[in-house]
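ESCALATION

Customer reports they have been waiting on this structure for their group meeting. Please prioritize. Original submission:
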Amino acid sequence: MAATDHSRSEAAKQRRQDQLQRWLGSETDRTVSEARETSAGSGGTRRAKVRFAQGAVFMAACSAGDREEVTALLRQGADINHANVDGLTALHQACIDENAEMVQFLVENGSDVNRGDNEGWTPLHAAASCGFVQIAKYLIEHSARVGAVNSEGELPLDVATEDAMERLLRAEIKKQGIDVDKARKEEERIMLQDAMAMQEGGGTLIPHPNTKATALHVAAAKGYIEVLKVLLQCGVDVDSTDTDGWTPLHAAAHWGQKEACNLFVEHMCDMCAVNNVGQTPLDVADENLVDTLEELQKKQNALRIKKEKQTPVIETSSHVSTVPARTRRTSICRMSSREKIGLHEREKHPPPALQNTPTEDEEEEGQTGQSQPKASSSSSSEEESESESDTESTKNREIINNLNNKRNTTSLLSTSMSANTAASQVKKEPCKPPAPEAPGSWRTSLRKAGSSVTLG
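Update from on-call: job pushed to the front of the queue and completed.
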C-alpha cells in the first residue's frame, strides 16, 4: 500500500515538472519576466503605498476623537471646515456623535457653527434632531443661528424631537425676537433678491458645484413662484439639467409644485425630457400631480399647434401688405411703353372701315368696345406723350387700311389663327399679298406680342 502511494506521489511530481517545462518560454512567462526586469531596474520591488486625501484623514481623526492627531493635521494645513460628499463637516459629525469635547475643540479652533450640508442642515439642526440639549446650548452660546432654515424651510425647532429641546429653542427664539414665519421665507427672499439683481444686469447664476442644480431647480422644487417668474424673464434655460439629468420640471413634478409646472408648460418646456435613467417628469411626479401633468401635456400640444398656425398667417399678411396689388396684373405691366402708346392711339383714333357690311360693322364695334376698357388703364403720362408718336401712329393706320382693303369674307376664327403667319409674311415676302386678317384679331395679337413684332 505504501509502495503504491509512493509511486502516485512520484507520478504527480513528474506531471508537475512537465507542466513547468511547458510553461517556460510561454507568453505568460515572458510577460512576467519583463515585469521583474523592470522592477529590478528601478531599484527592486517596492510595495505601493495607499495615500488618503488630507481632508479624509482629518475627518477620520475627528470621528475617532484623536485630538492630538487633529491638532497635528491642523498644523499641516488641514481645512477645519472640510466637508465630505454629503456636505458634512467634522463639527456636524461631532454633534451627531454627541462628542461634546470634540465639538468644543473644533469651535474653539474656528469651525463654522452655521455651515450647512448639502440639504442646508447646520450643526444646530443636527444636535436638535438628535436631542442633544447640552451641545445645542453650547452652539447657541457661540453664535449658532436658531433662525437658520434647511432646504425644506425647516428651523432647528421644526426638526426637534425632544420636549426639552423644543423648550430651549422656543425660549431662544423669543429672546432674540425672531419672526418664525419670516425666517422660513428667508431663502425665498434672498433668491428673489438675487434674481432681480440678475434681471437688472448686476448678477449671474452659478450652478451648485456638486449637483449642478440651478436656482431654477431650487425654486421649482420649493414652489418659489415669484422667483421662477423673474428667472424666466431673464431667459434662464427652462430645460437645464443637473448631474442626474433632472430638469426644473422634473423637480416641480416630483415635489408636487402644481403652479410651477403650469409656469414651465407656458414657457414651452420639454415635457418629454428624460433624466439619466430614462425617466420623464411624469414618471417621477407626485401621484397627486399625474392627472394634472397629462392635462398640461395636452395644453402644451394645443399651444404649439396654435403657434405653428399663427406664424405663417402673420408672415403671409405682412408679405401681402408690402406688395402692391397691381403687380399681379401682368397682362398690362408686361407691355412696353411703345406698345401701350400705340394701343392708346389706335383706340383713340380707330381707322375708317371700307365697304363693310352691317354685320361686319357690328362685329368691329363690339370688339372695339371690349378693348376700350383695357386701354383706359393707361397712365396720364402716356397721354402726354401722344405728340411724340404721331409719325408711328400714321404708319400704323396706313398698314391697317391696306390690310382692310385686301380682306376677304373668311370667318373670324380662321382669320385669327392665321394672324401671326400673315404678319410674318409682310416682313419676309413683301411682294406677296398678305393673308386676309380681321382688325379685332390683330389687336388681340398685338397685346400679347408687341407692336414691334407684329408690324415687322
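Sent to customer with the following note: The chain has three domains: 54-183, 186-303, 337-455.
Escalation resolved.
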